[in-house]
Amino acid sequence: MAVNVKPTFTLDYDAPGDVVYASVSVPQPALSVEVEGRKGDRRAVRRGDVVMPHQEANRRRSTTAGYYLSAVGAAIGVALIADEAIPGPGVYPPEALDPARVFKEWSARDRPMTWSERALGN
Fold first, then answer.
1. Residue 9: what pLDDT?
2. Is 59 helix (H, G, I), strand (E, B) or coil?
3. Domain tally for the chain?
4. Among 40, 9, 14, 23, which Cα is nearest to 117's?
5. Which domain holds residue 60?
């Protein structure tokens, strides 16, 4: 099945110099993580998303949601380094970080992680 997505942007000027996207017919930008594994005797994929509408990113920092979410992710990483909440010098995959701390940091910025799960065939 072919899907034709046509982005549509409607601009609304609420105040001088303030541009707000009134409607965007594309999916909301999200930072996502998927983990595949076994849950008991079945295979499953668990997905976490941090989503943000472009309108909110524009209101907060006059930018797009993709840029905003990327910047917040980087800021959380810097905060973890500053708090010495990483194992030490070097390069680490995301799973080396304390997930509870990372989720707490996203929530503190009013961007909580939402979770979904789907079963896979055995």
1. 38
2. helix
3. 1
4. 40
5. 28-120
Residue-wise pLDDT for 56-89, tens only, equals 888 888 888 888 888 998 898 889 888 988 888 8
**Residues of the chain where predicted confidence (pLDDT) is lower than 70:** 1-27, 122
Query: Does any domain span residue 104?
Result: yes
- In the chain, beta strands by DSSP E: 9-15, 18-24, 30-39, 42-51, 114-120
CA atoms within 13 A of residue 84's CA, in its CB half-sphere: 0
Other beta carbons within 10 Å of 87: 9
Distance CA 78, CA 56 (A): 23
